[in-house]
Sequence to fold (178 residues):
Amino acid sequence: MAVHPSVQSFGKIMKWQELVQFTETFWVTTGQKLARAIQLDAKKGILQEPLTAHYISEQYKKYKASRFNRLTGRGKVAGYKGQRMASTRTESVDMTLTGALMKGLHVDKAYYRGENQGVDIKYNDVDGYKIQHNETLGRDVRTWNDKNENKMLRLLAREVGKNIEEATKQDLTLIFEM
Fold:
């Protein structure tokens, strides 16, 4: 890395890319915050895609409202026996019938070295069929909405600000190489 001879530096020489390096802890924490934001949105009936989701079946709404008890009053509908119902909300699709899908949203992997930095947030593998079924109904649960995207951008900006603040505590010469 060459420094122009007219630059006098008494401190550390730093490439601008170093200011946007994030730690594994930062990415894991950021992923956890975003997963939690998506879970809270779902509880309120706010899905991540901009489309207005609605129930396809009135019968499903009735079953959900009754915690999947048979409408005749004789136990639970097959497949729901022994399962706790986390939500009986039917005003809007909230993706939290049993709560298992949203509870399964977690940080899978953080990338914190090199140019490709980020975090993978995913659902539990056993919930793949739920995700696919909801996609056939026009509900994409693998995206995030503008509010959560802005939250991510604010977290990134705050971290870059911290890095700049830390770097400028000492004499510094920035080198901008492309």
